[in-house]
Each structure stands twice: as C-alpha cells, then as structure tokens.
Queue: 3 jobs
Job 1
Amino acid sequence: MTSHPSSPSVADLFYADGRLKAVPRRAARREALLAHLAATLFEDGRAYREPEVNEALKGVHEDFPALRRHLVTGGFLSRTKDGGAYRRQQRTDAPGGATTAVA
C-alpha cells in the first residue's frame, strides 16, 4: 500500500461504488478524508450554493450535513455569513476547529 507518510490513505474508507463507509472518528483519518473530499468534489475559486454542496456530499454519504459541517469547521470550505455560498479553502495547516467565514 502506498500512502503519503503525513496523510493516511483514504481509499479504504470507501466502498467500491465510491460511497463512504463511515466518517472516521480519529481526527487524523477524518482530516485526510475531508482534504480528499474538498479536493475531489469542489473546484478552486468557484462559489457553491448550499444545495450544490449538499448534492455533491449526498453522492458520498447519507449524513451530508455532518460532512458539510466538518468541511467548514475544519477549514476546507468557507461559508458566507448568511450561509448562502461556500468556497473551497486552501489550508495552510489551519488548526482543527478553525472556522473561516467570508463576507
């Protein structure tokens, strides 16, 4: 198995059909999953409306609200103050729990 030493492989978190088995409880595994989801589901520089974010996440796991919340609180997605738009964030190793909001 080949994986980057600083980020555990996320391949074993998914079924063959691309659906997520479960959201990992361990912080390092969850962070690796969130980074993978942000990079594969959301384009840089594009604003997404909440229904678009939900639809993308529904394709991965039925608990899409929890995934959306983890992506925002983990600093992988930013959300406007009114909650109407989301953008992928470039993390510079933001501490866990850091919430990024944009005007």
Note: Residues 1-7, 94-103 have pLDDT under 50 and may be disordered.
Job 2
Amino acid sequence: MDDTLKREILSHAGNRWSLGVVHALGVAGTLRHAELARRLDGVTQRMLTRTLRQLERDGLIARQDYGEVPPRVDYRLTALGQGLLVGMLPLWRWVIDNAADFRDARQRYDEKTS
C-alpha cells in the first residue's frame, strides 16, 4: 500500500465525524441521513454529506438510494467498516480509561505555561 493512500485513510477515517458515523451505524445498524445527523451533535449537513461520501468511496459504508421522491437513502457499515469499528474499540477504551490522566496532564501543562 502506498504511503499517500495510508495517510488519506488514516486522516479521514480517524476524524471526529467519520468515527461518529462508523460508531452510529455500528450501534444502530442501517440509518438515514437525518437519523445520522441527530446522533452526531454539532455536525453540519454539508460536513455529514462530505463524510458519508468519503466513507462510501473507501468502502467503509454502503449507500442504498431507493430512487423515491422525497428521497430515501439508507447507510450501513460494510464488512470493511465493521473491521474499522472493531479495530478502534481498544483505542476508545484506552482513551476512556485514561481520561482523568489526560485532564490532569493538561492542567499541569497549562499551569506551567501560563
């Protein structure tokens, strides 16, 4: 795998909104755009659409357009997306388990540098 592709995948797959989408779909299964937006506090419609397109392009989610009016589009994790979710769980657990230590370190740093 070339370095550029690795950097691109890690860059967007590890961002706030991508991880939120992967987590939401992993927990809830198939969701529509509006349902995802409600689960991702603070995401704009434009950012969600952009994130969904990138995740679909990389094969992490699948998009089902029913061709109806009004539009009905569902999103779900692919096997590749499920693999990302499973791979990220240990890192999320580690962050949660060490949150107090991170807060303490930041406070010490801020006190020292202010």
Note: Residues 96 and 113 are 26 Å apart (CA to CA).
Job 3
Amino acid sequence: MSGVVDAKLAELGLTLPQVVPPLAAYQPAVISGAYVYTAGQLPMVEGKLPVTGKVGGEVTPEEAKELARTCALNALAAVKSVVGDLDRVARVVKVVGFVASAADFTSQPAVINGASELLGAVFGDKGVHARSAVGVAVLPLDSPIEIEIQVELVQD
C-alpha cells in the first residue's frame, strides 16, 4: 500500500534508493523518543559517489546542489528503514549540511538548498526546517556533500 509521502515522491518522479550501508561503526538512522536522527548521508548512487572533490573547485555549485538532493533522498531512505512508513513523519526538524569547499567558496547555503527544497517538495509545510550549512576541508571518500536530518514522528 502506498502512503501519501510515497505518492508524492512518485508524483515528483523520485524513487527512494536502498539504504546506503554504513562505512564505519554506526547505524544509518536511529529512533530516540519521538525523533529519528540520521547519520551523515553521502550522495551515493548505486554504491558509488557520482563525483568527488571540492565545491567551487572540481565540483560546480549546481552539481553540488543536485548532490545535496541525492543526500536528502538517501536520508529519507534511512528514516524509512527504521520507521517503515514516511507518513509517520510529523515534520522535518533539522537539516545539517556539510560542503567540502574550495578555499574561496562561500555559497554553502545555496548548495544545501538542494536538500531543503527536496524536503519541502516532498513534505510541504512539514518539510520546513531549521538548518546549518557548513563549509569543511574534506569529507569521507572525498565526497563534496554530506547531509544529516532529524525528523519528528507522529505520536500514536
């Protein structure tokens, strides 16, 4: 049976990927009380990074924004893996985005908009969230982007 969120994903032409297996000693997502916290999600597609390097260097801001969108889809897959149904999400509470940035790159918020806009498109008003967009020197596997999200669950 397809839920409201699954139907919205389909309407947007999106499919949730398989959950990206952990690269180290952690879980992709955990539930604590009424919240689900995801681990940092890289923009993996079929087990590989489509591009590596620094945003503002080897990776354009436009490419990076698309990668942030992929990270958000991976994060939603991680959430679904522990809650079973994305209709259980009451709201997206927080998004933290890390951008591996060239020394002079300062448009991290515009890059992380890729994730924020996707969550807004999928969840509507429930997708509006608090956010941090942080420039960093390097990310795992030389990924340009890493996203983590926190969602609140509907109380039964």
Note: Strands lie at 29-32, 35-38, 89-100, 130-136, 145-153.
